[in-house]
Amino acid sequence: MALRSSELEQVVEELSARLVGAVVQKVWCPLPRLAYLELRIPGRSVLLCLCAEGELARLSVAAERFPTPGEPAPFQRWLRQELVGLKLAGVRWEAAERVATLDFQDESTRRRLVLEFGSPGGLVLLTEASRVLMLSGDGLAQRRALHPGGMWAPPEPLSPELLAKARATPSRLQPEPGAFLPLAEVAERLLGPKDKASRAETIRRRLTLPYRARLKRASRTLEKVRAEAARGPEAERHRMLGELLTQNLYRLQRGAKEVTLTAYTEEGVEEVRVKLDPKRTPKEEADWHFHQYKRLQRGVEHARHREAELSREVAHAEAALRQLEALDEEALLAQVEVLHRAAAEAGPPEARPFKEYVGHGGQRLWVGKGGEDNDTLTFKVARPYHLWLHARGVPGSHVVVPLEKGVEVSQEVLLDAAHLALHHSAAKGEPRGEVSWVPVKFVRKVKGGAPGQVLYSREKTLVVRMEPDRLKRLQETRGGEVPSPLPS
Questions:
Q1: Domain boundaries defined on the chain
Q2: 135-154: per-residue pLDDT in tens?
Q3: Topology of domain 5-173, per CATH?
Q4: What 3-state DSSP class applies to 302?
Q5: Which of 35, 129, 279, 313 has the most CB atoms less than 10 A away?
Q6: What are phi and psi for residue 455, nearest 5 degrees?
């Protein structure tokens, strides 16, 4: 579980005594509620860990940090811009509000980094006057009504009873003699391994999820296909009956419901009882059996080809799952970028409910693959602050622009997304069209409506004149890959 109030108080006292005056050299923010500050004091560097992740929340000193994805998060860029080069001026712990505050300063600048341990928890970078510069943490902005440029206020304090209970809980920190920051270091040893194990399993689960879904779907289909492929004997029986009826047409009476005929087989003479349709003539009855034979035979052949394809798909999914299950913790954590994606977005591109393109400035653009996939993209993958687009007045794919929270869409990115919305709609090929766009939070499903059918409000409309060069550029990035520039 997270560090207790008494433990956080111990760690803060220790940091205040040993690290005040340390200079911020480097900053990392590998996950929304996890940051590391490398602080330098004469003769020593210290890696300070600030985590507001639920049961793993802590303020500690780590020996190593989580890997950081190649593309730095906006919060990381803000921390680096605002904190690197400043000195740690003080550390405070407010038990009632469950907030740790780190003050930084140089001759002309003062900044505060707040670590909120309550629910939902997160990190907030402030000016000296408590104005929010940037914040990080899932749900923190909505639950706490915080936004860049606004004023920060402490969370609702605990009741006196809960505060007394929190302070009375004994500390688990048993420092080792000789350590520079014994309490902060043991705090990391208490929760750091659990943090790594928990996140590694989350990565494994997200990586395996699309393969498990594919395996389940393919296995279920394979069972049906195998049943179809096993209908060969049934087809042969229709052929045999058709031939037997053809040989005995003169013995059949129209309107009869059944007839017993003699068949000469390799096993000997056999009396075969054949059910008849009174509405058919004898010739029609024989033709019907031949038709059934041909129909079933075609189905059997197709099923056998499909069975081979599905068997390969099942084998591929099973092999991928075995490889992912065999990955150790270090290999899983090396793919920490998976934690930045929604579950439905994780995994191989073919398993996602959308096609991905790359727009102006490297902005990702998601286009739903179909009705059900449109629903999944809009209501499960997209976040409320993402931008949603749709060709106005015609059927088409949902298009989502996954913007960072608080970031305005540029005109070029909007035009790119609008081109994709028109191209993946019934207006495809038209020289111009209209596209509606709105934040995802204003889109809702039609109750009882078909998959992908939605209603939306507060939309804006963009009239788009299709640019072939722009559309061609976007199509070349399908799959999320930016084409390499041609040599000059």
A1: 5-173, 207-343, 353-475
A2: 988 778 777 888 888 999 99
A3: ibrinogen binding protein from staphylococcus aureus fold (2.30.310)
A4: helix
A5: 35
A6: -120, 150
